[in-house]
Amino acid sequence: MTPEPAFLLHKRPYRETSALVDLLTLHHGRVRAVAQGVQRPGSRARGRLQPFAPMHVTWAGEGELKRLRLMEGRGSAALLAGEGLLCGLYANELLTRVLPVELPVAEVFAYYTAMLEALPRPDGRGASLRRLEVAVLEALDALPRFTDPEGGELDPQGRYDLDHTSRAFVAAERGIDGRTLRLLARGGWDEPGLAGPAKAVTRRALAPLLGARPLRSRELMVQLAQRRRAGSH
Questions:
Q1: Of the four listed, 27, 28, 118, 181, which is most buried by Cβ atoms within 10 Å?
Q2: Cβ distance 116 to 77 under 8 Å?
Q3: Measured between alpha carbons, how far is 155 from 174 in angstroms, rounded to an integer?
Q4: What is the pTM of this model?
Q5: Torsional sign, CA 130, 80, 94, 135
Q6: How far is CA 192 from the centre of its chain?
Q7: Which residues are CB-contacts of 142 (< 8 A; sequence separation ≥ 6)?
């Protein structure tokens, strides 16, 4: 096969010297594979198989679990630390959890690549994550419908919450105002003034896909925020 652009999403040890990996690839979406020998001391492939580092890979096998055959670096890893690193870990955990194996998601790959470029800058993190989340929701046909359950327009003066069953919005006393939701419907996901509502909507939309098990990366983000608040007093 032709070498495929890829990023490592998740890696865990397998047997004595190998690893089970989840990769995000350009044309085949999430690929699960065995990387043989990468845990062996001195393995050159071990240094290439790192999070946030662009690679070219090939694999073999007909089943859901492939066998990696080639891993070549194609650039430097994104230099992430602190909150930027936690945002990257969140993106990797999200994609590992919700993307079906081998569902083509070229737009998700493009937004993931753009996100890695944005994460080192604090002012670019929220918007890049929202764009990635929206691409994931679109790929899984799970993007909210910005109407009421009957398909009617949202009242700009009303307040609404997302109903998971219909993927539409229902009246809610403490929900998001209809004017904001109509702006999001027009593609305003990364506008600075809509950052809070955009995050709330994507989180609500992703919740059924993630299930009850909490995201480890989200827990780490909460812990970081708590340490920062404690340090400011």
A1: 181
A2: no
A3: 15
A4: 0.91
A5: positive
A6: 20
A7: 167, 205, 206, 208, 209
